[in-house]
């Protein structure tokens, strides 16, 4: 029999929050890529992390998404360009979204009919 401690609850909360933040950041990053919307949807349908997006080869990405290797190369080029482009406005939007989600998660909005898109549209 194992005892559940308060710290294990805190750890799982923080881990869940980190996963939520990572998913949101990756989703926002993919949506800002300079590629066709259909390709963005293919990427969003997979469980990519930033690391996996940056490390994937064109051949592997083509296989994962079921697309031609040439198209995968275009996606990878867009990813690399987006990473090297330093846009302060995008960083400010990212930070605002991150804080809004943290606040919503903290006050429990995510469990009472609000989702990420509703929370991010709210003016707080």
Walkthrough of the structure:
- With 124 residues, the protein is mainly alpha-helical.
- The chain folds into two domains: 29-85; 87-124.
- The protein is 73% helix and 0% strand.
- The chain has seven helices and no strands.
- The mean pLDDT is 75.
Give the CA-CA distance, first to last residue.
44 Å
Order of helices and strands: HHHHHHH
Radius of gyration, whole Å = 17 Å
Shape: elongated
Number of strands: 0
Given the structure, what is the number of helices?
7
Query: Structurally, how many domains make up the residues?
Result: 2
Short structural description:
The chain is mainly α and 124 residues long. 73% of the residues lie in helices and 0% in strands.
Label this structure with key terms.
124 residues, 7 helices
Topology:
Blueprint: H1 6-31, H2 37-44, H3 50-55, H4 58-65, H5 69-84, H6 88-107, H7 116-121
Helix pairs in contact: 1-2, 1-6, 4-5
């Amino acid at each position: 029999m194992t005892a559940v401690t308060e710290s294990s609850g805190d750890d799982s909360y923080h881990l869940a929050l980190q996963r939520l933040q990572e998913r949101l950041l990756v989703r926002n990053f993919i949506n800002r890529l300079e590629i066709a919307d259909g390709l963005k949807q293919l990427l969003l349908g997979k469980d990519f992390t930033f690391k996996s997006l940056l490390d994937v080869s064109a051949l592997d990405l083509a296989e994962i998404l079921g697309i031609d290797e040439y198209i995968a190369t275009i996606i990878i080029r867009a990813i690399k360009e987006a990473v090297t482009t330093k846009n302060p406005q995008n960083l400010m939007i990212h930070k605002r979204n991150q804080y809004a989600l943290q606040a919503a998660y903290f006050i429990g909005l995510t469990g009472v009919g609000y989702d990420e898109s509703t929370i991010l549209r709210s003016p707080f």
